[in-house]
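Appendix C: a fully annotated inverse folding record. The material below is reproduced so that readers can follow the format used throughout the book. The structure is listed first as tokens, followed by the designed sequence.
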């Protein structure tokens, strides 16, 4: 599977540089973008895991992560992701790179990788990534979101949560509280990939970054499913 190959290549490179702000080859950053796009597409292709359209229509941001399990007992120790926000114009931003790790949420018991999409339902939560490590479930309440396959109940209490969590694993019940490790911005990756000195706020909320061809498929897909 293409996504699995891309992810394993990314993990091997990331493991070599674990804990260091190492500038990677551009091809590695492209693999990360493509891998995150594949996670979202595959989640949406399966009605049993897909995020409902009404949830996506109200989303203010998306975080897509790939995390690798360091060991059966140690849990997830390293990973990466991207964040995108919906601007006031209704257009989605370019994807900005994140670091993701220390997750121990049991989303995919026994698997070597944890693939997760966080749907951000307010404008304040993405800003938690500006200057600090953002602990999902601690700094902002995170709950398992409803899926397309589930009965349509009153979703308003769920939508009121800042973060809705989606994974390809079938074990989470809608509304269950989730603690999913940390996210932090990856300034090194963003500066290298976009050839800029701009930091996360400018990358997400300004028009100063021209989308490169490599990020346009992900941007177009997100705009399609979350207009």
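Designed amino acids, in order:
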């Amino acid at each position: 599977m293409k996504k699995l190959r891309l992810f394993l290549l990314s993990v091997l490179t990331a493991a070599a540089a674990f804990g260091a702000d190492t500038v990677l080859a551009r091809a590695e950053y492209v693999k990360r973008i493509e891998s995150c796009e594949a996670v979202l597409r595959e989640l949406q292709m399966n009605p049993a895991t897909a995020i409902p359209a009404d949830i996506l229509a109200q989303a203010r941001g998306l975080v897509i992560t790939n995390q690798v399990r360091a060991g059966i007992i140690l849990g997830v120790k390293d990973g990466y992701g991207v964040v995108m926000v919906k601007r006031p114009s209704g257009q989605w931003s370019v994807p900005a790179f994140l670091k993701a790790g220390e997750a121990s949420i049991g989303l995919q018991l026994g698997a070597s990788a944890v693939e997760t999409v966080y749907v951000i339902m307010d404008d304040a939560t993405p800003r938690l990534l500006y200057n600090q490590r953002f602990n999902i479930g601690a700094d902002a309440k995170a709950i398992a979101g409803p899926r397309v396959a589930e009965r349509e109940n009153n979703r308003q209490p769920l939508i009121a949560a800042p973060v809705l969590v989606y994974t390809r694993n079938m074990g989470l019940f809608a509304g269950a509280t989730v603690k999913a490790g940390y996210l932090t911005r990856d300034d090194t990756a963003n500066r290298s990939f976009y050839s800029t000195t701009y930091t996360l706020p400018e990358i997400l909320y300004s028009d100063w970054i021209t989308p490169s061809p490599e990020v346009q498929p992900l941007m177009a897909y997100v705009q399609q499913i979350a207009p």
